[in-house]
């Protein structure tokens, strides 16, 4: 019973610190006060405080460095923490990659349009750098490097677009398909890679011209061409060849 009380109190303390982080009272990179200061401030035992810190660490809101000179530092949660539980839910619902790709195709081309509507020279430079990487990989017929560059192209569009909500949602969905860019590239040939590079350059030119309708249309077509493969394959985030627990 005492342990349950500690846990409930720890959750309450964690909620208070989480609120301070969300409101900007504690900034990314800030050090939390020492254990002695926190236990005195909240009037709790050290074990209860450690339960609160464990909760915050599991949520990616703090990083704890152990040992002498260590302590808790406020951090930005990694989107991987959102992607994995979402992937598990989708897998339990027997979701196909086709279903996931349809959701992505509803969002990502819109982000390309947003980028065409409002972009900076830094945005264009970032896109051109990625296309340059893809072009080099295609010229060298390096399928692994091309798969990484193709994934980065999508990621750059997502990160550089101006709508935070859609960008975060799209980044989480993008995390679920990262490995598939390498798989697709390995099954490709140099001609297809070069065709994709031409499509990437065309999108950058459209964005630079500030034409959101053409940007959205072009990226919808590019994504539909890429997504035509393995549409009925079920999502399986643990398909790594290792044995699973069975009865």
Structure characterization notes:
- By secondary structure, this protein is mostly helical.
- The protein has 2 domains: 2-74, Winged helix-like DNA-binding domain superfamily/Winged helix DNA-binding domain (Arc Repressor Mutant, subunit A, Orthogonal Bundle), CATH 1.10.10; 80-226, Four Helix Bundle (Hemerythrin (Met), subunit A) (Up-down Bundle).
- Helices cover 68% and strands 3% of the residues.
- It has 11 helices and 2 strands.
- Strands 1-2 form a two-stranded antiparallel sheet.
- Helix 1 packs across helix 3 (46-58) and helix 10 runs antiparallel to helix 11.
- The chain is elongated and about 65 Å long.
- Residues 241-247 have low confidence and may be disordered.
Number of domains: 2
Nearest-integer average pLDDT:
88
Main sheet characteristics? 2 strands, antiparallel
- The shape, in one word, is elongated
Fraction of residues in β-strands: under 5%
Uncertain segments are 241-247
CATH topology of the largest domain: Four Helix Bundle (Hemerythrin (Met), subunit A)
Structural class computed from helices and strand pairing: mainly alpha
Number of extended strands: 2
Helix content: 55-70%
Rg from Cα: 23 Å
- Helix and strand succession? HHHEEHHHHHHHH
CATH architecture of the largest domain: Up-down Bundle
| Count, helices | 11
CATH class (first level) name of the largest domain? Mainly Alpha
Main sheet: strand order: 1-2
Q: Name the CATH homologous superfamily of the largest domain.
A: GntR ligand-binding domain-like
